[in-house]
Q: What sequence folds into this?
């Protein structure tokens, strides 16, 4: 029998997007467990504090490994019992967690694509040579240079509204790259594109968006998914988290994250991988860039078992 007389503490970062994701988690829990008291705990992480250097350098500067820049403090709070469930953008979560922690569930996935936002309506093909594209992601940077080697990639930090404001100001960027999921969850874009052309960014006059097809611009593993992390031995929190999990999303992200594990890929490894699921069958595709630059390796695989399909994808790389 699950205990209902004790509050369930939900830990989250304090960014606007993180709070939207925490709210989605809380709403799902409240729907299933109307008598459960849910408490939100907002925690500032290393990645939130260190905006003075490029994201790729934060881990080095702080001594945080893999994707820990956005989860270290949340895991400390889990470990000391300050929170029971940590809500993450799954792409920020390390491929392999410490033994004391477990990924218990994921919510239903949002769109996974990357979005190019500009001030002039241009898509990726239409940007003029030497245009400056802002991103803090090495994966996005490598793909920009792979697809448009004539463009200049410049660092971009801050939450989603801040990044949009930086582009609107025109000071240092001609275009920026953001996750479709975040733009949709924050209300800047509709759930689905109204057509094939550029879309206006809501409440940001002059900014337009192009959603980049996964087959052109490979997303990050886990992109668009909200992950629920718990203490590995906490059965109560596991039951709550698993009760609101989405099985189809779990199958897809299990394959994507297993592929990263096989690559031994961490936060700053430039890997794009995405999946689709139809009638129980997974289809995986990946693009892996060498750390020194140059042409990526690519592969694809199809199967029903996520672990086996990830291995097939790994073995198909060439």
A:
């Amino acid at each position: 029998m699950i205990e209902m007389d004790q509050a369930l503490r939900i830990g989250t970062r304090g960014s606007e997007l993180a709070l939207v994701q925490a709210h989605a988690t809380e709403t799902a829990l409240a729907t299933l467990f109307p008598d459960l008291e849910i408490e939100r705990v907002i925690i500032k992480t290393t990645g939130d504090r260190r905006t003075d250097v490029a994201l790729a350098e934060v881990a080095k500067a702080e001594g945080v490994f893999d994707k820990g820049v956005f989860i270290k403090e949340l895991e400390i709070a889990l470990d000391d019992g300050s929170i029971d469930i940590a809500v993450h953008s799954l792409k920020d979560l390390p491929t392999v967690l410490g033994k004391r922690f477990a990924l218990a569930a994921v919510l239903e996935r949002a769109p996974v694509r990357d979005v190019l936002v500009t001030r002039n309506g241009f898509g990726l093909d239409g940007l003029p040579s030497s245009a400056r594209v802002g991103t803090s992601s090495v994966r996005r940077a490598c793909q920009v240079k792979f697809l448009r080697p004539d463009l200049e990639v410049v660092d971009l930090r801050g939450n989603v509204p801040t990044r949009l404001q930086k582009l609107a100001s025109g000071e240092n960027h001609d275009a920026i790259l953001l996750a479709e999921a975040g733009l949709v969850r924050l209300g800047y874009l509709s759930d689905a594109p109204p057509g094939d052309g550029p879309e206006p960014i809501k409440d940001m006059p002059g900014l337009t968006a192009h959603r980049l097809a996964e087959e052109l611009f490979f997303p990050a593993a886990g992109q668009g998914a909200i992950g629920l992390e718990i203490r590995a031995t906490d059965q109560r929190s596991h039951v709550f988290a698993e009760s609101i999990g989405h099985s189809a999303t779990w199958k897809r992200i299990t394959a994507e994250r297993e592929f990263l594990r096989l690559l031994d890929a961490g936060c700053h490894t430039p890997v794009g991988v995405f999946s689709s699921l139809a009638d129980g069958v997974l289809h995986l595709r990946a693009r892996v860039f060498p750390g020194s630059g140059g042409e990526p390796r690519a592969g694809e695989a199809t199967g029903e078992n996520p672990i086996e399909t990830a291995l097939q994808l790994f073995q198909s790389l060439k």
